[in-house]
Design goal:
By secondary structure, this protein is mainly α. It has helices at residues 33-54, 75-93, 105-112, 118-156, 161-166, 195-199; strands spanning 181-185, 188-192, 206-208. A three-stranded mixed sheet has the order 1-2-3.
């Protein structure tokens, strides 16, 4: 990469990011890849325009023979403006390739505020993880309550044992997990699984299977 008298890269340097784009397999196939590259080039051109405007040197003038912008309308500044316009035109031409890409408004707000847009991803993951823990806690509490209720109903109403056994299991249980079961034995009933531990606290004629 060549550098001119102003310390600004030459026109062919607008593609200096292209080599980096091939470091990952399939990177260039993303619909936003070309847009990202063009945006980086646009930012570089705007930066170079600011440098040219703040530090005008004789070699950057179009009238300077052998200068970096000799014979170019507007000199080096004109050349940078032309590059900027070309990059804006290229960005507009990509608009049809990202129509289906949805960007949350919060991400746009983060960019407007100068924040890292990846903060949105981090906050979203943390929020989802918290909601998932809360939901799992609720499901666990309901499942425990159902087990306790099943055990208590079996103790209080032995004649309903068959109905309790036939009640549908929660959708979250696996197919091989039968859940609490109540068995009729000689006028009393026995429980297995987790309900055996619950039934140990009752002072009724309950027989618990190992």
């Amino acid at each position: 990469m060549t550098v001119d008298a102003l310390g600004v890269s030459s026109p062919d340097a607008e593609h200096h990011h292209s080599a980096r784009g091939h470091t990952m397999a399939g990177e260039g196939t993303r619909p936003t890849y070309a847009i990202e590259q063009t945006l980086e080039q646009l930012l570089q051109s705007l930066l170079e325009m600011g440098i040219c405007a703040s530090d005008v040197q004789e070699s950057a003038l179009s009238s300077t023979p052998g200068g970096v912008a000799s014979g170019y309308p507007g000199g080096l500044m004109g050349r940078k403006v032309s590059q900027t316009m070309e990059q804006l035109t290229k960005l507009y031409s990509y608009s049809g390739t990202v129509q289906d890409v949805m960007i949350p408004l919060e991400v746009v707000n983060f960019v407007d505020q100068g924040k890292n847009p990846h903060m949105y991803t981090r906050e979203f993951i943390e929020r989802v993880a918290g909601e998932n823990m809360y939901t799992n806690g609720m499901l666990s509490a309901v499942s425990d309550y159902r087990d306790i209720l099943t055990s208590s109903l079996g103790d209080a109403f032995p004649e309903l044992v068959n109905h309790i056994r036939a009640s549908p299991h929660p959708a979250g249980r696996s197919a091989g997990e039968e859940g609490p079961q109540v068995k009729q034995e000689n006028g009393t009933h026995a429980m297995d699984g987790n309900d055996a531990q619950l039934g140990s606290n009752h002072e009724t004629g309950v027989k618990m299977e190992p």
